Give the backbone structure.
Amino acid sequence: MKVLIVDDEPSILLSLEFLMKKEGYRVFIARDGDEAFDIIRQEVPDLLILDVMMARVDGYEVCRFVKQSPDYQHCKVIFLSAKSKEKDIQKGLDLGANLYIPKPFSTRELIAKVNELNILPKI
Amino acid sequence: MNSLALVVCSLLYLCLLFGVAYWAENRPQTGRSLVNNPYLYALSISVYCTAWTFYGSVGRAASEGIEYLTAYIGPTVGAPLWWTIQRKIIRICKTQRITSIADFISSRYGKSRLLGVMATVLCVMGAVPYISIQLKAVTTSFAVMTGHSVSGTSASFLSTQALVISLVLALFTILFGTRKLEATERHEGLVTAIAFESVIKLIAFLSIGVFATFFLFNGPADLFTRAAAAPSLARLFTFSSSASTTNWFWYSCLSMMAVLFLPRQFQVAVVENVDEKHLNKAMWLFPLYLFLINLFVLPLMFAGKLMLGPLVDADNYVLSLPLQYGQTNLALLGYIGGFSAATSMIIVETIALSVMISNNVVMPLLVSRPGWLARFDPPSGTPSRRGLVITIRRVTIVGLLLLAYVYYHYVANHFSLVSVGVISFVAVAQFTPAMIGGLFWKRGSRYGAKLGLLMGALIWVYTLIAPSLVTAGLLPDTFISEGPLGLTFLKPYELLGLTGLDPIAHALFWSMFFNIGGYIWGSLNWSQRALDQSQANLFVDVFHFSRTTEQTTPWNGQALTTDLRSLLNTFFGKEATQRALDRYIQRNQLEAGSAYADPRLVAYAEKWLAGAIGTASARILVSSVANEEPLSVDEVIHILKASQELMMVNKKLTRKSAELQQMTQQLSLANERLKQSDEQKDDFVSTVTHEIRTPLTSIRALSEILHDQADMDESMRQEFLSRVIRETERLSRLINQVLDLERYDSGRYHLSTERIAMVDLVAEAVENVAQLARDKQVTLEICPTQAQPFVDGDRDRLMQVLINLLSNAIKFSPADTGHVTVCLTLRDERVNLTVRDNGVGIEPDVQQLIFEKFYQANNQTLRKPKGSGLGLAITKKIIALHYGQITVNSVPGEGAEFTCSLPTCE
């Protein structure tokens, strides 16, 4: 299982990377949308954990790219954003995201949800 | 010459005159009106030249020398004044429908009936002698032509003849002037006939003058040489004495006034005027006419003196000269000329007087006593007053001519033409104060006019009429020589001991003295009624009112439309009334068919009536139907005040509504701003919470991991813990900045200022960020400077600014090749602090936006690199608190340059 974590906050990247590795995922990290595109094309991750607000290309763009391209139909997307307004959440879900988790989040909850998401299609 | 032939000639001439009038009257229907012509107007004004001029000038010159000229110098000198005086009178008469001088005075002074009567009486008293000398001239010329002896005594034959002439002229005048009742009293035919007569008399006089000068003598040079040779004639060339100069002055003044206010002059120049612009031409044409008709007066006088015996009356030279030399036809022409001069005067004068008498004396008397008026009504059918008015006028004309005949018979026969004429002039001059004052002085009042007119008239009677009765043998001689009852200071020719003036100048002086004095004294000592004031305004300010608006004193009552209509019907007939009222109602868009007449309609009806029966009568008649509650001064003041208050209230309202509108606008603007600032506040709050969430998220995630993962290795644990600390620091920094900004924004922040040496401050700041620069391998440099600028400021805040700018510069500079420079420059009492880097630079379209708080965050989902987004906003606030400005100058890709400009202290 490949997980790509995209965020511009180093502390968040660090903690998410630690958690995902602990769960046994192969973890890739990107600090903005551009970097994310490169990794998506190269590695074709199964799960994206996306921040919304980033320099140059934002999380919504990345999500749209993934969801519209036939190559990445299996890829699941989780938004993890400080933008917690209803319309922001709705926008993320409309773009096809599987989850939208507002910051600050509970690490345990996040892990539980990620696992749940990855188990479901297997069933 | 055969008297029958002469009678036939005279009658034929009268018929010709009537033909001219008839032709002119019926012409307007076919073409342009003849009267609408300045030349005709000027010629009609020349009715001024009567038999006095035609026969009397020569006679006057024979006795007094060139003094006869004063009667023409006055009008000539005064002609330019017409533009101010005559034009104003014309305008007033047109707007007020005034038809005579008595009407004018009555109307001007509060539509006073008494004044109208006084003016009329004075006019009649002045005019009757004047008419009588015309009768005398015609009668005498008739006698001269037929060869009858002319002596001072009144032979019965001549008397009868004069009476017949009077009656014929009365009949003719009636035919001319009173055929119909006109609202404007304009007589086109009459005016044309008068102008025609002016031409005839000029031609006749010039012909005889040319005959005498060039046929009896060899031109003027010959004539004057021979006259100068005769010792008895030499004195006539010059002023007779020093007193004469004074007399000249008074005589000229007299004629100047007379030409304006003689009833006949008023009739032709004002009432018959068609267009004010005609005055322009008349102002020089009329003096020219006077010049021409006087050209041969002296030659004729000298010729008469040299060629005719001393027995011939100088007043008759004009006819005697051609007759003496057998020029019968020329003499006949002269006779017709003289006849023209006399008849034109008689016709115009009696018409003017008859209008005056009927409108200002008889009609007011009748209309104020409805019982009397009713006696003239026909036994059945609707009563018509038209016939009544016309009958009154006809009777008046006959009466006037008979009066003139009586005066001629008893008095005028004993005097020369001019001396009687001049007496009339003095009478008419009495109108001057009331007229001129009425035109230009609003305070001129009824009492003043009455007093002035009365005193002037009394002096005139006492100093001129009474002595003439002495000459006629009706008063004892001692009246003149010793004064009445031996009171010498009352001697009529030397009143109050004034000597050195001839009787006319003397009378003029005293009558004018008392007249003007009475007028002014009366005006200043009695207040005006409301009606007087409004009339005074309408007259004096006539040029300020527009031509179209109705100029009347407002009516203060209600009149039934039917009453008004039936009143007008009786004077103008049903059809004309209907037409006129309908037209007025339509033109002024009044409400038709209402039971009560609009006040404007009432005013119009009054004015219309005034044209036909005079101002005072019209006032009485209309008030009889209008039930007017008299307009008291208090009421007028009340109305004025009310309208003033209304105007003020109106003004206030306008201002208030403008203010309200402005306030509404301001309110909506404020509302807009509030909404905006509310949105900003919203944005700010959401941005702050967002910014706070970011480190909070990190702290929570990191600490949860630390808490849950007991088996973390030590270095990892250390790393996590230090990150938690850093994120906590970041969080508190952010909170501090938000609070700072809030304090600056609300103006609650107070700087603790001190004198700061900028060079030291910069050095300290650079030291503070030196580590940051070294970490990133960025060179940090301070420009060398000689300047030692000082700034009054808050050291900590300015340090905050500097560090913020420097750390931003370092942050955005490329690692290794980065280069940051700080410079201090002094210009115009300001110190410029510049921080320059060679980093990515700032796009031009966002250069102003970066100073806004959370500009980074505001840009939707895209995050600008690094920082809380409050640094520059705070920097800008601090600089502003120091009365400075911060600007940015940047080329993207080449770096940015921030400059703070601060005022120095010396």
Residues 10-23 of chain A form the longest helix (14 residues). The beta strands of chain A are 2-6, 26-30, 47-50, 76-81, 99-102. The mean pLDDT of chain A is 88.
